[in-house]
Amino acid sequence: MEQRITDAGTEQHGGPRATFDRALDGVKDDVLRLGAKVEEALEQAGRALVERDPDLADRVRWDDRQVNNLQRDINTEITTLIATQGPVARDVRELLALYHAAAELERMGDYAVNIAKLAQQLASEPETPMLKQIPRMEQICREQLRAAMRALVDVSEAEARGVCERDDEIDHLYNSVYEDAMELMQVAPERARQATHMLFAAHHLERLGDRVTNIGEDVVFLATGQVEDLNP
């Protein structure tokens, strides 16, 4: 990372614009890597939850430091580019969108860790069938995260709006989990702890979906210059 920043500040081949564009592409690549790490953490946390696998859950918790370290590196790259390269207004908006996306991704990684912790707690409880909506929520979150990363790198307004629109599907599934968890507590009070763990897992997924929508809103602003609330 340090070598990339140094090269961006000193390399003359291709002129200042070409140098900046190469550095910007490097930041985008790192944000994509961060998104891939978060997607992997989410998939592993969801699998640990369904399969009652405490070791896999522990791996998610351990690997979260990589997400945190990469986010810090991205922040350093972006602030250095702004301070040393004199980017124009459009470039600054794009860099700030990438900065914000990295922060949202780091928070998503925290949600994956929280789900992994719940997986470990569930693994120590008497087995209760997983509410079927939860694996579906996890799958949609990963699909939306991938789509948001494509929209961010391509500055695609259409794809960003599609990401935001699909958040309603996650919300509906979360509401369904809430109803089923409440019913489970009523008919089987001895399963109240398991129902509560599953409800919290669904809550973390619902919040993660909101974070993905935030990235979509940033892309729409980057593409149009208009601030829109796409997750009312």
Question: How would you characterize the overall build of this protein?
Answer:
The protein is mostly helical. It has helices spanning 2-10, 15-51, 54-85, 89-123, 133-154, 157-165, 167-187, 192-224. Helix 1 (2-10) packs antiparallel against helix 2 (15-51) and helix 2 packs parallel to helix 4 (89-123). It is elongated, with a radius of gyration of 20 Å.
Number of helices, counting only DSSP H or I runs of 4 residues or more: 8
Order of helices and strands: HHHHHHHH
Q: What do the pLDDT scores average to?
A: 91
Helix/strand-derived category reads: mainly alpha
Taking all Cα atoms into account, the compactness measure Rg is 20 Å
Sum up the overall morphology in one term: elongated
Count of β-strands: 0
Q: Cα distance, first to last residue?
A: 38 Å
User: What percent of residues are in strands?
Assistant: under 5%
User: Low-confidence segments, ≥5 residues, pLDDT <50?
Assistant: 1-12
Largest sheet: none
The helix content, as a percent range, equals over 70%
Brief overview:
The chain is an all-alpha fold and 232 residues long. 85% of the residues lie in helices and 0% in strands.
List the helices and strands and how they pair.
Elements: H1 2-10, H2 15-51, H3 54-85, H4 89-123, H5 133-154, H6 157-165, H7 167-187, H8 192-224
List its traits.
232 residues, mainly alpha, 85% helix, disordered N terminus
